[in-house]
Design brief:
Largest sheet: 9 strands, mixed
Number of domains: 2
Distance between the termini: 39 Å
Number of strands: 17
Oligomer: single chain
Helix content: 25-40%
CATH class of the largest domain: Alpha Beta
CATH superfamily of the largest domain: Alanine racemase
Order of helices and strands: EHEHEHEHEHEHEHEEHEEHEEEEHEE
Shape: elongated
Number of helices: 10
CATH topology of the largest domain: TIM Barrel
Strand content: 15-25%
Radius of gyration: 21 Å
Amino acid sequence: MVEVETPEVLIDRHILRTNIRQMAESTAASGIGLRPHAKTHKVLEMARMQLAAGAVGLTVATVGEAEVFVADGVTDVFIAYPLWATPQLARRLLDLTERATITVGVDSLEGADNLARQLGRDAHRIEAWVEVDSGHHRSGLRPGSVEEERMAGTTALRVTGVFTFPGHGYLPGQAIAAAAQEGEALSRSAALFRQAGHDIRHMSGGSTPSAEFSSPEHVTEVRPGVYALRDAQQLELERCGWEDIALSVAATVVSRREQPSREVIVNAGSKVLGSDRPAWTTGFGRVLGQAGARVTALSEHHGTIQWPDEVPLPVLGEQVRVIPNHVCLTMNLVDEVAVVEDDQVVDRWQVAARGRNR
């Protein structure tokens, strides 16, 4: 096992390549485009790998993220977020259109009208996709609602697609149902906008748990992000195996105790692992190679790991590999990652879009 200064985020390049290839092959076989969500990794080298494997473009969450990837040569970017435009943001969007096809999300007539007003005579240079709620109940218009009908009938934007995030597929056992609801919502909304005269060519959905169940009858592309790296949530949802985990956090055991429970403390806390813990998960993370271990508590620089009874406790100074619950948080907490192959650090990648939150 490679020894590094800890805490350190490690990415296994072989597993990463395999994950990227498998998703690209799976979506291609289904006749669905793949537009990976780059907010997960924020790394230029990983985006290049995804595009080389056949991705149709990238998804991002912010204009700042789009700027980073477009500057690296990406020519098709979807900002999958209901932007509220200011004059400065509109100028940045238009600057991006000089180098790439830029698509933005909208989910209200007010937001769409504001964006059109801020873009002015150049509004035609931006494509808009309308977000619909397929069951996650975050942002997005409810299919068939009065608000959606108003949007379809009056928006001045060039609407070319509809999109949704089936985030409820992150609940145990819900991936298939979420994909079915995704297809129903997208089809219904696409029909409404087409009837109103919009040239709807894109129906975009998909998340890492549900992407393989998306139907080419209703979906033209999917936008998974976590699939390239995987994390403890995907492991516990049984959407991946241990062998699919490309990212782990190397951490050093700094304290240990046998009583009243068998625990070790490592020097990786919430400031590198993140603090996300959905109610259905069994802890704040897992330990690579120790299926029975659970991260049971986090503070900023301490991670408490409950160790299985049948396995000897690690000694002080020993390094373990922690799998965070939510890999997107971990990648936004570090400036760079170590790339490993065959237990050797072979490269270091900058997290180029880290902190580009607007």
